[in-house]
Fold this protein.
Amino acid sequence: MTGPFVIRVKDIVRSPGEMREHAFEVSAPEKWGEGLVSVDAGVPIDLDVRLESVHEGILVSGTAETEYAGVCGRCLTDIAEGVEVEFQELFAYPGEEATDFEVQDDHVDLETLVRDAIVLSLPFQPVCQPDCPGLDPATGERMTENTGSEQREPLDPRWAALQDYTTDHDEEAPRLRVENTEES
């Protein structure tokens, strides 16, 4: 069993209490993620991994750091951001509990574990900045902070005849005078 995410654990297999730490860099083997942002193939991933032998198998915990790239969900500007995720999983010995991860030939393969942790941490609706104003609905151009206040939202043509009626003209309207008349 070989690959950039494969770690040999022969020296700690079935030795509860033994621990090893590894820090290494790998490249994403393929594009990870399908939304507006993803980790492209070949992007470096820094891994800091701790392997602990327990009775049931090898407990793997650690962090992965990489960078995702894509577009802002509001204005479609290109963005690239760093992402750091933590992960932990028990790689069971063969024949022990039924799990998705197993120690195979005295090795653990972290690729699926790391990929799942990174993909699940990617933002569903990424933005270039928290208050991104998005695109102008009329022109399709990227709005900036100052363009939003200067431009007036286009008026629906069905309401155009009413645009001359505003609350500013209320003072000119005749007032209804109500007199209190009491009958004796």
About this structure: The first strand starts at residue 6 and ends at 8.
